[in-house]
Amino acid sequence: MITAEHWIEALGLDEHVEGGYFRRTFLADHRPRISTPAGDRYTMTSIHYLLTRGSPVGHWHLNQSDILHFHHHGEAITYHLLYPDGRYHTAVLGQEPHRGQLLTLAVPGGVWKASHLTQGDHGLISEAVAPGFDYADMALGQAAHLLESFPDQAELIRRYCRPAPPGFSE
């Protein structure tokens, strides 16, 4: 049986600041960079990303780039999306389209996103990011800020915000 530990070792995954594990798999360094309001970026980057029973949540975060998510192995992963206009959407990325699961999920830049492993030992996906990922274009969700912008989603915001370190106050 293939386990989360197998994927962590086989793919050389490291802990991710959002939760789960990751490893960059592609960087379009063979092409000229493109200009964005935040600076020059690679045209595309990609990663493997793994949620596990021990690290089942991808905490609220916002990326400026568009991201395609592709499910590869394991259990389904549920995504919670908060759009700038206040809309909330949920989608399940998994291997069972007859149950409404998606093999691929597109999340536009500027949309807050959280995810969680629905059940089981692990869910393995990959992400393609365009323009390419840069930490300067990503924000981790802070509960107070998200609650101001999305007061109707208070339960989800609190559930999927990364816990603040001891002694931290917003």
Automatic annotation (TrEMBL):
InterPro entries: Cupin_DUF985 (IPR009327), RmlC-like_jellyroll (IPR014710), RmlC_Cupin_sf (IPR011051), YML079W-like (IPR039935). Pfam families: Cupin_5. It comes from the Bacteria. CDD domains: cupin_YML079wp (cd06121). Residues 6-140 form the DUF985 domain. PANTHER family: DUF985 DOMAIN-CONTAINING PROTEIN, RMLC-LIKE JELLY ROLL FOLD PROTEIN. This is DUF985 domain-containing protein.
